[in-house]
Design goal:
CATH class of the largest domain: Mainly Alpha
Strand order of the largest sheet: 1-2
Bound molecules: arginine
Number of strands: 4
CATH superfamily of the largest domain: Fumarase/aspartase (Central domain)
Oligomer: single chain
Number of domains: 3
Mean pLDDT: 95
Order of helices and strands: HHHHHEEHEHEHHHHHHHHHHH
CATH architecture of the largest domain: Up-down Bundle
Structural class: mainly alpha
Strand content: under 5%
Number of helices: 18
Largest sheet: 2 strands, antiparallel
Low-confidence stretches: 1-6
Length: 455
């Protein structure tokens, strides 16, 4: 085929391999065939090429497809190699396929065509994760667990409230990816090298055939821009960062015995027979690091590129393709891990009160009885300082008498204080919108379910 396609004036030098993207272009092999077909159909329907030639080219493209990407040779990228193969089959008329286009609009169209599908797969995985978080949350609206800030026991919450915190974040990740999808799904085809073409092309027809929402307006922008890669990759990276937080929590909770990952999502040690390690979650956590690296690589490549096409762009899209695969896989693994994990209710309930986690609730109780919150905070802080763990009602009263000069019971009943000290009661009392009380969580669950079915 190298003999047939004679335009490679600069094809034989030692840098040929360095310049070639043919191997990496396997990712866009099918996309290029689709783009070729749409372009050829458009050319024939506009009478730019004869319909018999178009038919021969289309048949040749089927042969090229059947032979597969690995059968290609003789081109510095998949676009040239497919064209060379078509010319091999059809003869010189095969070269009419490249009328009124350039590899610049062609490759940009191929990347968008393929990335569209990949982003939809990543979205599927994110939706499955949301479903798994929702289902598990629905089963645990009453399962009290410790909540942390600074990784220190802070206030009791529930497993449902915790899981929904991630479901809400993944829902926003999905919204960002869907926004990016809208801007991926526009057609640069027909922009040619950057400066349009004198042929009477029908860009809308080609765009329609390829399922794009619209054609891009400015041919220089259309062929040169990769901002859609930056946008998609940053949405994916943000999603990876969300996943890394969930993964980190599950690693830490397994360490504390607050969650047990199923064997399917654990690994063992080659030397320590007793080990059950949360390796899947550690790997999910690490994907965010790779994503940040890929995003940085992409933005650094794009920064300062002049208009219009520059060959630097050949190294741009791999960053998005690698990340979309990794992040989709990480979301799918997280979904499976969440769906199959066990939340040990007794251990969680026991840990929920650790570190005087109900202190804020006691201060809230005193403030509700009319003490300034700051004064209530001072009383409870002093009680925390004087006791190991959670102080009893008598200790709280003794401290109040010292700090306020009057008994705690001039403000609240002993029963109310007992209730405030109980993690389950503490959770039930925090029924503000979005709070952990079961009724408040039910409301979030129902919003989340509605949004998931809309998405
Ligand atoms: N393979 C190239 C890329 O991925 C497209 C070829 C455009 N080449 C050119 N010399 N104008 O960006």
């Amino acid at each position: 085929s190298e003999g047939v396609i004679r335009r490679n004036r600069f094809s034989g030098g030692p840098a040929r391999g360095f310049m070639s993207s043919l191997a990496a272009d396997e990712r866009i092999f099918e996309a290029d065939l689709a783009v070729d077909r749409a372009h050829v159909v458009m050319l024939a329907s506009q009478d730019i090429i004869e319909s018999e030639v178009a038919s021969e080219i289309l048949a040749a493209l089927d042969e090229v497809e059947a032979a597969g990407h690995d059968a290609l040779s003789g081109g510095e990228d998949v676009h040239e190699a497919i064209e060379a193969a078509v010319i091999d089959i059809v003869g010189p008329d095969g070269g009419k396929m490249h009328t009124a286009r350039s590899r610049n609009d062609e490759v940009a169209t191929c990347i968008r065509y393929r990335l569209r599908e990949d982003v939809l797969s990543a979205l599927d995985a994110a939706l499955a994760l949301r479903e798994s978080l929702l289902e598990t949350a629905a089963a645990h609206t009453e399962t009290v667990m410790p909540g942390y800030t600074h990784l220190q026991p802070a206030q009791p919450t529930t497993v449902a409230h915790f899981l929904l915190s991630y479901e809400r974040a993944v829902a926003r990740d999905c919204a960002r990816l869907m926004c990016a999808y809208e801007r991926i799904n526009q057609s640069p085809l027909g922009s040619a090298a950057f400066a349009g073409t004198p042929f009477d092309v029908n860009r809308e027809l080609a765009a329609d055939l390829l399922g794009f929402d619209r054609v891009m307006e400015n041919s220089m922008d259309a062929s040169a821009t990769r901002d859609f890669l930056a946008e998609t990759l940053s949405a994916l990276t943000t999603h990876a960062v969300t996943l890394s937080g969930l993964a980190a929590d599950l690693v830490i909770f397994s360490n504390k015995g607050l969650v047990e990952l199923s064997d399917d999502y654990s690994s063992t040690s080659s030397i320590m027979p007793q080990k059950k390690n949360p390796d899947t979650m550690e790997l999910v956590r690490a994907v965010a690091g790779d994503a940040v690296g890929e995003l940085t690589g992409l933005l650094t490549t794009l920064k300062g590129l002049p208009r219009a096409y520059n060959r630097d762009l050949q190294r741009a899209h791999k960053h998005a393709f690698r990340t979309v695969d990794d992040v989709g896989e990480a979301a799918a693994v997280a979904a499976g891990a969440v769906a199959s994990a066990t939340w040990p209710e007794d251990e969680l309930a026991a840990a929920a009160g650790d570190g005087f986690s109900t202190a804020t609730g006691v201060a809230d109780l005193l403030a509700m009885a009319g003490l300034p919150f700051r004064t209530a905070h001072e009383v409870v802080a002093e009680a925390a300082a004087r006791s190991e763990g959670t102080p009893d009602v008598a200790t709280l009263d003794a401290v109040a008498t010292d700090v306020l000069g009057e008994s705690l019971f001039t403000h609240v009943t002993a029963e109310a204080v007992e209730a405030a000290l109980d993690p389950t009661e503490s959770v039930a009392s925090r029924d503000s919108v979005g709070g952990p009380a079961p009724a408040a969580v039910e409301a979030t669950l129902s919003t989340a379910r509605d949004e998931l079915s809309d998405d």
